[in-house]
Specification:
- By secondary structure, this protein is of the alpha/beta class.
- It has a single domain, classed as Phenylalanine Hydroxylase (Orthogonal Bundle).
- It is 52% helix and 10% strand.
- The protein has a four-stranded mixed sheet.
- α11 links the parallel β5 and β6.
- α7 packs parallel to α12.
- The relative contact order is 0.13.
- The model has no long low-confidence stretch (mean pLDDT 91).
- The protein binds fe (ii) ion.
């Protein structure tokens, strides 16, 4: 399996004081924004993980804590993995964590995932059973369609507008659960702007919505609960099986 090509040693001693400072700064800002803007399931997971406020986490230590909570194991990696390797890992409850941390000029928005994004953005929801059910079944669908280019475009849109930039309606208030939004102070402010379009979660609408992961998004999609994500999966696979080309008309 190619997975081992991307797995690296975290080289914890290689982080500079400046890197730990970046972590501490991001953590502090995030904590201030989170209580108001982030969904309760994420906050519960964040509390359970007991992440360090001042120093970059050792991936091995967080992996031990997460394994005890929900059975997931973490592996340090050099960066983004090819989709097949990424989704295969997820089906096995293995989560790749980028070992590098962003540079100080990327504090507000980092184009590439880094350890802060992966740990603080994504791990808290890996403690939530319903969200994990969605993610693992979604990943297993993705591995089935990995050779189908059109299906993968559609799946990447669902993934992006849920896992990375998804919003949830919590007692009539929009809260964030997407990891990219949660770890970008700039994007949290943008989403909170009443002029930013927020649409009800709808897979046909998302299928026709393009995205650019290197920029802030122009629109967002809102679920009512994590059941919406899990419940869409049968419908999602049916649509992929039937005819992907008719669904992808905006390409
Ligand atoms: Fe991410």
């Amino acid at each position: 399996m190619k997975i081992k090509d991307y797995v690296i040693d975290q080289n914890y001693e290689g982080y500079l004081a400046e890197d730990h400072h970046t972590w501490a700064l991001l953590y502090k800002r995030q904590e201030e924004l989170h209580n108001k803007l982030v969904c309760k399931e994420y906050l519960d997971g964040f509390t359970k993980l007991e992440l360090s406020k001042t120093k970059i986490e050792r991936i091995e230590d967080v992996s031990d804590r997460l394994k005890n909570i929900s059975g997931w194991t973490l592996l340090p990696v050099s960066g983004l993995l090819p989709p097949i390797d990424f989704f295969e890992m997820l089906t096995q409850k293995i989560y790749p964590v980028t070992a590098a941390i962003r540079k100080p000029f990327e504090i507000d928005f980092s184009e590439q995932p880094d350890i802060f994004h992966d740990v603080c953005g994504h791990l808290p929801l890996l403690t939530n059973e319903k969200f994990v059910e969605f993610l693992t079944v979604f990943s297993s669908i993705a591995t089935k369609y990995i050779e189908n280019e059109e299906a993968m475009v559609l799946l990447s849109r669902i993934y992006w507008f849920t896992y990375e930039t998804g919003l949830i309606n919590e007692d009539g208030v929009f809260k964030f659960y997407g990891g990219a939004v949660i770890t970008s102070a700039e994007e949290m402010v943008k989403v909170n702007d009443p002029n930013t379009p927020k649409y009800p979660f709808d897979i046909d609408h998302i299928f026709k919505t393009t995205f650019n992961s290197f920029e802030l998004q122009n629109e967002y999609f809102v679920i009512n609960s994590f059941d919406d994500l899990f419940n869409c999966l049968i419908d999602l696979e049916e649509k992929l099986t039937n005819n992907t080309s008719s669904l992808i008309s905006s390409l």
